[in-house]
Structure to design on (1077 residues):
């Protein structure tokens, strides 16, 4: 733990040092009334006080807290004869008497100084003379009074590490492998949990020395010892301690697996002839099952082992030392492991154990799949029906153990739903387990319950959290587990969760295994955890095609970068049955009337009802302008304004209808058009030189046919006729992506018309990106991603590498004032397809050429080509810092310096100068970069364009970090921070990218003076819209002042209809959806 955090906690913890156990556990002031304090009496709790000890106290003993105090220990050595406690009714009582911490809760070393926990002064000098050194005594004391209490549910003399390990320690006459393994674990754990104390004892890397000696001793014992007696007990105990050492270190998946295999080999060949056998068999079974759960493999233990081990678990309301109250759940979890491994084909045949078909292997496989599916359904019922025993909620410790068992149940159900049923992370069944699981975990933290064996369910649930509040709570739980347990793998588990949230394509922990490798698992307290899997979206339960590899179903923990409520992580365009799932509450009345009018217009025009309505929204880009085609991440959000297409597909020869496409529009501005039905992309006629609204539908059709040809090679597609009525509310040429919304909606409608089911959001977005280029616009992909992946109440962090994907970001809810955005249309028209040669397309070419030249000058090799066009500035940065440990922030700073050095001319470069810098002829340059997309320019501003791209990309990450931060921040500071980032972006767009115009500058300054915290252009620029960050309480005031100061100055008197809709507040809306009337 961070030293600063320790110092801040000490004054807080001193308050409850002398109170009763319950008040101290809750960190409340205790009035110390006996026999029951007021707080416990009011709650009906048993009130217990620590036993006061004689001798030196903390206040009058200045010695090192872990240095043994030499006092008389008469009778202690004689308490152990041959490794058996002389006082059977109170084993180890002389060594570990009464602790000063609550017996009903785990020791928290951070809250209780160790020297207050020790009721003895020195370890015995005989018979274990090898234990007399100060170092060994210190480590044993730490193990007994701190580390071991965190590993089991039982405490005091019932703790298995006290009950079984102490006799072995004091019965030995020499320092063997077990003692060294114990020293290694204790040393590493103390170093991990209390680094300042470990430093005081000059431990450093000493644990590695102990570990090495333990491994060497273990190998020697295995070579020399036969089977039977104490030898196996000590050997298995050594292995167990070595496993815990790996856990405390936070790594060693391969080493831990080797230890487990060795342990099972010994257990299988050993009779249950020693007292520790029951505990060891259970604990290794636990390790094995969790490792198999995390890695998606078949457990090392077989069904017979699981059956015998489960018989050793404490029954009823008895708290098992390994499993707590979840003991009766573990046979079901073990079966889940075996079924999952069999269903994935990893370790067991696809054929069922009861169904065989010797003549036809395919039939056998199908029967086997059906068998395992039925097994999964039975497991689901078993989990749903299971209940933790007992209901004594008056005892906080008992309540915590119950909640831990329930958390395991919910985690197992999530595993089943995601891995066996292939349900998406956003599915109601999955999220229906996440919420109650978080409640269980938060209660454990509230009551200060034991956290043994809790990390796996915590990480499973954390990776599936979908809202910022849930994620913040999950991280609090993880922090608490790390502080209490002191295991190094908790740190890596937190990293797994963060990477899961930061990753675009993996919505939870149950994706593919494409990144899984031998060294990737991090064995956490008893679990392999690390591996951020990439999820390959497959269907849900009941599929009959066998996955190509286990990697395609699940690996270990991640999740996602981002799951969020309804269908984002499903990667399937959702179907809604009510528009309330599409719009915010404020928009429902107006939108309901609009949809009814659309369907009525369709029936009036075509004499039949529309069968489907496709919908895609416009978007506003909050930060990250003109960097998407350089493949840097951007941060837009979907808006309520959208494009609707009501349609009906008519197949060839049906109803005597000759296939054709009829395009109608509810607006009189767009006249009705007809086009021939098409079966190939070549059949679609598009004249991109004309500003024709129907072109945006045709490019969607063209892209659809191209996609289907590639998806189904050799299949002849039919000519499908379509009857279409379009309605759009996204202002044209305003920077809100009306063209992207139209193309996305058109492509979605065409995919449905050609019979596609379960349309992939990624496929739709990529199709739309390529399609829009057919009308002469070289789009980067941000507009389409925002339109398709929009999520109500969330902005989107859109990434283009390593693949096109989107992460929802929810704005903080703890602020005193809500976050709102106002969109203001300057009413300066920017017709993209007309101005592109001198504006948009030119900027794309300038950035591409800048990247190619930087790659050559920095000797980075051949850059990756984007869409067959050229390299990107992002690829330059990635290659420049590949293999270097440079923070991302510093990478951007260095790239800005490189750009200024390599492009010193602020006035730009001619074609001839560019050709010389690239080592080619001028005509070659023009042909490669300026033919595919027309460009009009004499000089190319490489320096300014690259400076904008790198600085803007850095601002996107700053904006994302500010939204996702869980640190306490005031409302003023939050809005000031985000507003400052937006204002810097506007300055860069104006001064470096030259995509602003005077009207944009004017309205942004007016907004800032009227209460907005941030103001910038949005979209391509050169007119169009601006977006203002504003507190909800100031929205009305801002709208009034902007209307009065910009729109009512007489300049737009002849455009009153446009003025009425030019400035409005908005909220993040849903993305693409389908509706079946």
């Amino acid at each position: 733990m961070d030293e600063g955090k320790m110092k801040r906690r000490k004054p807080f913890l001193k308050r409850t040092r002398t109170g009763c156990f319950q008040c101290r556990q809750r960190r409340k002031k205790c009035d110390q009334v006996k026999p029951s304090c007021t707080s416990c009496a009011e709650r009906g709790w048993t009130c217990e006080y620590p036993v006061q000890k004689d001798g030196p106290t903390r206040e009058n003993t200045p010695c090192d807290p872990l240095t043994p105090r030499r006092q008389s220990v008469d009778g202690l050595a004689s308490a152990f004869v041959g490794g058996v406690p002389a006082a059977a009714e109170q084993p180890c009582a002389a060594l570990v008497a009464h602790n000063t911490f609550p017996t009903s809760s785990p020791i928290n070393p951070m809250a209780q100084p160790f020297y207050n926990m020790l009721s003895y002064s020195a370890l015995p000098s005989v018979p274990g003379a090898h234990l007399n050194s100060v170092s060994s005594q210190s480590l044993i004391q730490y193990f007994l009074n701190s580390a071991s209490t965190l590993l089991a549910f039982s405490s005091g003399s019932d703790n298995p590490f006290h009950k079984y390990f102490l006799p072995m320690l004091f019965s030995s006459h020499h320092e063997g492998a077990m003692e060294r393994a114990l020293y290694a674990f204790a040393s590493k754990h103390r170093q991990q949990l209390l680094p300042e104390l470990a430093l005081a004892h000059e431990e450093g890397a000493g644990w590695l020395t102990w570990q090495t000696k333990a491994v060497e001793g273990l190998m020697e014992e295995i070579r020399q010892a036969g089977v039977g007696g104490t030898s196996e007990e000590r050997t298995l105990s050594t292995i167990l301690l070595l496993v815990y050492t790996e856990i405390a270190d936070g790594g060693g998946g391969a080493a831990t697996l080797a230890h487990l295999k060795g342990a099972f080999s010994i257990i299988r060949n050993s009779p249950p002839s020693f007292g520790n056998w029951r505990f060891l068999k259970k604990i290794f079974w636990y390790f094995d099952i969790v490792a198999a759960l995390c890695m998606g493999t078949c457990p090392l233990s077989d069904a017979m082992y699981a059956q015998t081990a489960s018989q050793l678990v404490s029954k009823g309301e008895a708290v098992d030392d390994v499993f707590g109250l979840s003991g009766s759940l573990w046979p079901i979890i073990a079966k889940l492991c075996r079924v999952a491994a069999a269903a994935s084909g990893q370790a067991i045949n696809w054929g069922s154990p009861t169904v065989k078909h010797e003549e036809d292997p395919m039939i056998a496989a199908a029967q086997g799949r059906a068998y395992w599916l039925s097994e999964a359904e039975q497991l689901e019922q078993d989990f749903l029906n299971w209940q933790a025993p007992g209901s004594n909620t008056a005892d906080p410790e008992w309540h915590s153990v119950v909640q831990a068992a329930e958390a395991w149940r919910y985690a197992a159900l999530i595993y089943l739903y995601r891995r066996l049923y292939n349900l998406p992370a956003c599915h109601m069944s999955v999220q229906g387990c996440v919420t109650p699981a978080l409640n269980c975990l938060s209660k454990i933290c509230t009551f200060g319950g034991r956290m043994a064996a809790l990390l796996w369910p915590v990480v499973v649930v954390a990776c599936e959290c979908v809202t910022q509040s849930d994620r913040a709570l999950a991280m609090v739980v993880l922090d608490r587990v790390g502080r209490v347990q002191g295991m190094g793998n908790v740190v890596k588990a937190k990293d797994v969760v963060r990477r899961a949230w930061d990753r675009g394509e993996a919505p939870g922990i149950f994706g593919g295994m494409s990144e899984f490798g031998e060294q990737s698992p991090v064995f956490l307290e008893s679990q392999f955890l690390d591996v951020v899997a990439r999820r390959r979206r497959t269907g849900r339960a009941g599929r009959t095609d066998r996955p190509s590899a286990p990697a395609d179903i699940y690996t270990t923990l991640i999740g996602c970068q981002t799951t969020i409520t309804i269908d984002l992580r499903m990667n399937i365009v959702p179907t809604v049955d009510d528009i309330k799932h599409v719009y915010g509450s404020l928009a429902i009345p107006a939108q309901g009337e609009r949809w009814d009018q659309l369907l009525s217009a369709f029936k009036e025009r075509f004499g039949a009802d529309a069968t489907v309505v496709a919908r895609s929204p416009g978007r506003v880009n909050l930060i990250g302008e003109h960097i998407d085609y350089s493949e840097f991440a951007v941060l837009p959000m979907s808006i309520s304004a959208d494009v609707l297409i009501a349609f009906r597909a008519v197949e060839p020869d049906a109803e005597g209808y000759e296939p054709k496409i009829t395009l109608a529009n509810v607006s009189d501005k767009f006249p009705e058009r007809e086009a021939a039905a098409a079966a190939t992309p070549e059949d679609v006629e598009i004249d991109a030189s004309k500003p024709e609204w129907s072109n945006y539908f045709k490019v969607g059709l063209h892209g659809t046919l191209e996609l289907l040809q590639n998806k189904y090679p050799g299949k002849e597609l039919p000519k499908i006729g379509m009857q279409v009525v379009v309605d759009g509310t996204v202002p044209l040429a305003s920077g809100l992506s009306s063209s992207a919304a139209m193309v996305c909606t058109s492509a979605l409608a065409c995919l449905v018309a050609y019979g596609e089911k379960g349309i992939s959001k990624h496929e739709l977005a990529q199709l739309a990106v390529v399609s829009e280029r057919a009308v002469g616009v070289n789009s980067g992909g941000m507009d389409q991603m925002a339109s398709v992946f929009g999520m109500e109440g969330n902005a989107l962090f859109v990434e283009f590498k390593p693949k096109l994907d989107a992460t929802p970001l929810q704005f903080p809810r703890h602020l005193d004032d809500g976050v709102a955005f106002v969109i203001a249309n300057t009413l300066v028209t920017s017709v993209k397809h007309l101005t592109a040669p001198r504006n948009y397309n030119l900027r794309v070419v300038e950035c591409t050429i800048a990247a190619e030249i930087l790659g050559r000058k920095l000797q980075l090799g051949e850059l990756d080509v984007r869409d067959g066009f050229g390299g990107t500035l992002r690829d330059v940065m990635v290659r420049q810092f590949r293999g270097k440990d440079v923070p991302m922030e510093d990478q951007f700073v260095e790239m800005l310096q490189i750009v200024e050095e390599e492009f010193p001319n602020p006035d730009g470069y001619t074609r001839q100068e560019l050709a010389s810098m690239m080592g080619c002829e001028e005509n070659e340059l023009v042909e490669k970069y300026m033919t595919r997309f027309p460009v009009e320019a004499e000089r190319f501003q490489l320096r300014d364009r690259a400076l904008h791209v790198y600085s803007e990309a850095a601002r996107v990450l700053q904006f994302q970090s500010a939204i996702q931060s869980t640190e306490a921040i005031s409302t003023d500071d939050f809005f000031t921070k985000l507003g400052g980032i937006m204002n810097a972006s506007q300055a860069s767009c104006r001064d470096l990218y030259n995509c602003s115009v005077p009207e944009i500058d004017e309205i942004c300054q007016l907004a800032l003076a009227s209460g907005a915290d941030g103001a910038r252009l949005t979209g391509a620029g050169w007119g169009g819209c601006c977006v203002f960050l504003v507190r909800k309480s100031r929205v009305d005031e801002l709208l009034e002042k902007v209307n009065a100061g910009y729109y009512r100055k007489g300049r737009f008197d002849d455009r009153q209809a446009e003025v009425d809709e030019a400035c409005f507040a908005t909220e993040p809306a849903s993305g693409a959806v389908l509706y079946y009337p």
Observations:
- The longest helix spans residues 361-385.
